[in-house]
Automatic annotation (TrEMBL), chains A, B:
Its cofactor is Mg(2+). GO terms for biological process: terpenoid biosynthetic process. Pfam families: polyprenyl_synt. The lineage of its organism: Bacteria, Pseudomonadati, Pseudomonadota, Alphaproteobacteria, Hyphomicrobiales. It comes from Devosia crocina. SUPFAM superfamilies: Terpenoid synthases. It comes from the Bacteria. Keywords: Isoprene biosynthesis, Magnesium, Metal-binding, Transferase. Gene3D superfamilies: Farnesyl Diphosphate Synthase (1.10.600.10). PANTHER family: FARNESYL DIPHOSPHATE SYNTHASE. This is Probable farnesyl diphosphate synthase. One of its GO terms (cellular component) is cytoplasm.
Length: 300, 300
């Protein structure tokens, strides 16, 4: 019987330790206090936080193909570093202008804006350094496919493009269809990349990769929908960040267009769709099933 | 007889055309005006400008191993996109706060800060997407080595780490040795990566790669030294950007510590060192020799 709480806590511990090990001045940069500053800011942006859901998806997808958990660690670290860089940059004054993240000062508050820009840039860059290392996977052919997945998932057709659309959408006038596209890019694309990267690590054939992609796209929609619902229903204390920001900013989400109950119904249907995409995989996909259910039930 | 002016102009044309072809909304992102905005900002930051010296180094290094110029194009585009992203982010108000770049408004002036941050992020990300594509090189083993070179050259131990040290150095107190380390990271690391990526594309053996690395490190020092000298001697009109900024900011360079004549002597010695590193390669290295000489003689 798969235990989501235990497995996700174990993954979070492994990622925390892996990030802490990788993000050191001795490994990443040269000697001297100036070199330590950008690494310290990278650590601030990456450590002590988050549910590490993307690395969890990487290793849950790889587990379908019996890949041991440690073999998915480097790939999980790379995906998490991209997620963390996006938060560091999104928090900047020119973007969402957030002072708090996970209950702590954001990187530009703890350091300064220039350091936060550079720390985000470096987290993104080193994600690709991690994937290029043979520790990630012994075969170059697999590693280069991971690079492609991560780059396309986080680029102008994925995460960054979604963030741009989100900013444009705040000016108003997005239809529900346009909101869906924006969200599928902003958060969906990296979730999709995480699942696909796990599958590629595990050596999935095209048919399995296609089923897992369908899972990931539904799970990504569920994740974003839950986030929009929590922005309305949760408190800043629970979330460790400001809530009610979407409404305050006049930002359109599926909650503002469908109402809270309508959005909850769509969320449940979407989780069901994600789980159905896994029907050929048997008990080895229980991890991914549990994560999709978690997306619908999470309280922060 | 190698013609530097003709070859560098040809390379700049190929890179301009290649960037313009790659940086389109239809290729990079989905439909709709919001998607076009980040791509338009990427184009503003990458097109119509620059001497494209890094892609020139890529193809000149590859030429030693008889690689045809078009086969070095994708790699050159990737290196140039990393260079351009670094300029877009360096120009931001929180960093160098520049309004002009190559005589045109910087990206955050032509668009806004959030868009400039995202466009820089996307240029960096898509550099790795380009390298992961088989169009770059048919062998995955070669492509993943290129990813590694580019990531390590532009990360916390390379370009971004150098930029962080540069900001710290403006507060004063850097010794000439610390200035050298900072410069070798800030501009030297990407020049080094460019030459090495060309050598890797060409299939250089370890001995040739080592000689080319020595060339690249000396050439990178020459490039930065020439830049520091031009900051003192050139006009904003010639450079298409503000000059005298180092002195104004109290920034220490080798010109401020050695004087103009002292710096010019070190520059000439450094170019000689770069050219000597190429002594085993014969006429196929004339391109790299000419580029090193160009670094010492350029007027903008």
């Amino acid at each position: 019987m798969y235990d989501f709480s235990a497995d996700s806590a174990d993954c979070a511990r492994a990622i925390e330790a892996g990030l802490s090990d990788y993000l050191t001045g001795a490994r990443l940069s040269g000697p001297g206090p100036a070199a330590d500053r950008v690494v310290a800011a990278m650590r601030h942006g990456a450590l002590e936080g988050g549910k590490r859901l993307r690395p969890l998806l990487v290793r849950q997808a790889a587990a379908i193909f019996s890949l041991p958990k440690p073999a998915a660690l480097s790939t999980g670290l790379a995906v998490e570093m991209v997620h963390c860089y996006s938060l560091v940059h999104d928090d900047l004054p020119a973007m969402d202008d957030d002072d708090l993240r996970r209950g702590r000062p954001t990187v530009h508050k703890a350091f300064d804006e220039a350091t936060a820009i550079l720390a985000g840039d470096a987290l993104l860059t080193h994600a690709f350094a991690l994937l290029s290392d043979p520790l990630c996977h012994p075969e170059a052919e697999v590693r280069i496919r991971l690079v492609s997945e991560l780059a396309l998932g986080s680029g102008a057709g994925g995460m960054v493009g979604g963030q741009m659309r989100d900013i444009e959408g705040e000016k108003g006038g997005f239809s529900p269809g346009e909101i869906s596209i924006m969200q599928s890019m902003k958060t969906g694309a990296l979730i999709r990349a995480s699942v696909r990267m796990g599958a590629i690590l595990g050596g999935a054939d095209p048919r399995a990769l296609s089923a897992l992609t369908a899972y990931a796209e539904a799970a990504g929609r569920a994740f974003q929908l839950a986030d929009d619902i929590l922005d309305v229903t949760a408190t800043p204390e629970t979330m460790g960040k400001a809530t009610g920001k979407d409404a305050e900013a006049g930002k359109q989400t599926l909650v503002s267009t469908l109402g809270l109950e309508g959005a909850r119904k769509v969320l449940n249907d979407t989780v069901t769709e994600a789980i159905q995409a896994l029907r050929t995989f048997g008990p080895k996909a229980d991890g991914l099933r549990a994560t999709a259910r978690y997306f619908a039930s999470r309280e922060k």
